[in-house]
Automatic annotation (TrEMBL):
PANTHER family: NATURAL RESISTANCE-ASSOCIATED MACROPHAGE PROTEIN 2, SOLUTE CARRIER PROTEIN FAMILY 11 MEMBER. InterPro entries: NRAMP_fam. It comes from Levilactobacillus spicheri DSM 15429. GO terms for molecular function: cadmium ion transmembrane transporter activity; manganese ion transmembrane transporter activity. One of its GO terms (biological process) is iron ion transmembrane transport. This is Manganese transporter NRAMP. It is a multi-pass membrane protein. Pfam families: Nramp. The chain crosses the membrane at residues 51-70, 85-108, 129-155, 161-183, 190-209, 291-311, 390-408, 428-446, 458-478, 498-519. Keywords: Membrane, Transmembrane, Transmembrane helix, Transport. Its main location: membrane.
Length: 555
């Protein structure tokens, strides 16, 4: 575990404090200090307090992480899963949530024990070139997620206030003003706001599902995976359960969430010379994360149930957020009498739009913080949070504006389906980036040199490797269909063949980059082991980083 900053380390610019000679007014500054330095260690947790009080003090980072598991992309895949396959894919939501809990536990533990976020830990062991590649890759993943947030927020504004869709897309850019306000109020208050927004989403859908009186036998039966869960034979509109399962998995396990959690887990002030204090922080961080991800599981499960309740009759032809909103206010499409009676008031559709807007706004905080983490960690650059958010959002709105403009002369359903397809197809970047966060995370938390007594236990190691390999294989397996989705709902045979060729090329690139990453991480760990023998445990990590920079300069 890291101690005070090594003078030689500071000289080399590795994990030293930020360069104080840089003028404060510059928009882009050199950054190589602690992860998210402005909030690192700012929340003090008293000792000798009850379990519940301690849990309350440690709660918050898990809520910021849970946001990524209930964004509009998750909404779309869960609702579609219920619409097409009834309760069959409930088990996929459950398994994805359990895998997410395991990965987020390891991410939080890495940050707490090593005092580095995942991006910093990777960069400390790898070359500058690889750091830039991983940074660009993760930025694309963040932008892909932000596209879903833009679409979700714009649709919510359109549904609530009847603002033209293209204007609503432009309005989403101004959530940077919300971010400016949030940066002034302190991290604990930001956590509280996110928790409140999550509760709004949960309560809205719990209320709607309670009215729909679902088939609870089918719901609980769907939690047990069967051979049909991952069947590849077409069943509904040419799609199959395997494609639906891959969509849910891809939208659930977010690569950038691992970077964020490893950073914000360090917001609690702890004594790193006390293994007891570290163990306490890891334990409560795990409680916090698991509780919040359990809430995220319920939200996604409720969305799938809503998809069954609203679309079961087959009378709703618009398979998008617009269609669900209209169905929640149109009693003729309801397959349940109680739900239909409440729909007459218009409250169901309004609550749905409010929850959709809340989901989109949550990303204002988490997406920006994640971008800052990877920028500082991989390329040692820092910019104001508001500017970072503005740049990301301006890039993200471009494909949405193009999509809206190209479909403006077509039917409403065509426009809605096009936006839905754009949201789903953008997730291909998540599949591309996911292995490059999962694999290094597992390698570093499994290292006794890095983690000491906090290294992964045998069962965590086994489950971790099974999750990493399984998710990577499934994401690669789903690449051809995801790429084919860019050609529309009914691609030609030639387009399908082209999609498979592109997917094969991408898989080769992924495997080559993974091999490069593994080799460099292994060499970095060897440097750590070498310095451990000569300089002692307290300075081994810092010394190895200095040696790594020396090697990079020589090359």
């Amino acid at each position: 575990m890291l101690g005070e900053t090594n003078p030689k380390l500071a000289e080399k610019g590795v994990l030293s404090m930020p360069d104080t000679t840089v003028k404060k007014h510059k928009l882009i500054q050199y950054a190589n200090g602690r992860s998210l330095e402005e909030i690192n260690g700012t929340v003090e947790v008293p000792h000798n307090i009850s379990f519940l009080k301690a849990l309350f003090m440690y709660s918050g980072p898990g809520a910021l992480i849970a946001v990524g598991y209930m964004d509009p992309g998750n909404w779309s895949t869960s609702i579609t899963g219920g619409q097409n396959f009834s309760y069959l894919l409930m088990s996929v939501i459950l398994i994805s949530s359990l895998v997410a809990m395991l990965l987020q536990y390891m991410a939080a533990k890495l940050g707490i024990v090593s005092q580095m976020d995942l991006a910093q830990a990777i960069r400390a062991r790898t070359s500058k070139a690889l750091g830039i590649v991983l940074w660009i890759m993760t930025e694309f993943a963040i932008m892909a997620t932000d596209i879903a947030e833009v679409i979700g927020a714009a649709i919510a504004l359109y549904l609530l206030f009847h603002i033209p869709l293209i204007i609503a897309v432009f309005i989403t850019v101004f959530d940077v003003l919300l971010l400016l306000l949030l940066t002034k109020i302190g991290f604990r208050k930001i956590e509280a706001i996110v928790v409140c927004l999550i509760m709004v989403i949960l309560v809205v859908f719990a209320y709607q599902v309670s009215l729909s009186n679902p088939n609870w036998g089918g719901v609980f039966g769907g939690l047990i995976p069967t051979g049909k869960t991952f069947a590849s034979s077409p069943t509904v509109g040419g799609s199959n359960p395997l494609q639906g399962a891959l969509g849910i998995i891809g939208a659930t396990v977010m690569p950038h969430n691992l970077y964020l959690h490893s950073a914000i887990s360090q917001t609690r002030k702890i004594d790193h010379n006390s293994e007891k204090d570290i163990a306490r922080t890891v334990r409560f961080a795990s409680w916090d994360s698991n509780i919040q991800l359990t809430l995220a599981f319920f939200v996604n499960a409720l969305l799938l149930i809503m998809g069954v309740a609203v679309f079961k009759s087959g009378s709703v032809k618009d398979p998008s957020f617009f269609g669900l909103f209209q169905a929640l206010s149109d009693t003729t499409t309801m397959s349940n009498g109680v739900l239909a009676s409440v729909a007459k008031t218009g409250i169901l559709s309004t609550l749905f739009a409010v929850a959709l807007l809340a989901s989109g706004q949550n990303s204002t905080i988490t997406g920006t913080l994640t971008g800052q983490v990877i920028m500082e960690g991989f390329v040692h650059m820092r910019m104001p949070l508001w500017l970072r958010r503005l740049v990301t959002r301006l890039i993200s709105v471009i494909p949405v504006l193009i999509c809206v403009s190209m479909t403006s002369g077509k039917s409403a359903i065509d426009e809605h389906v096009a936006l839905n397809d754009l949201m789903n197809n953008s997730q291909v970047f998540l599949a591309f980036a996911l292995p490059f966060s999962m694999l290094p995370l597992l390698m570093m938390t499994d290292s006794k040199l890095e983690m000491g007594k906090f290294k992964n236990s045998l069962w965590v190691k086994v489950l971790g490797w099974a999750s990493v390999i399984g998710l990577t294989v499934l994401n690669m397996q789903g690449l051809p269909d995801q790429i084919a989705g860019f050609f529309g709902d009914n691609p030609t045979a030639a387009q399908t063949d082209l999609a498979h060729v592109i997917a094969d090329v991408l898989i080769v690139i992924i495997l080559a980059l993974l091999t490069w990453t593994i080799i460099e991480l292994h060499r970095g760990n060897q440097r750590l082991a070498q310095h451990l023998k000569t300089e002692g445990k307290s300075s081994a990590v810092e010394a190895a980083m200095v040696d790594g920079v020396d090697n990079q300069e020589e090359n």
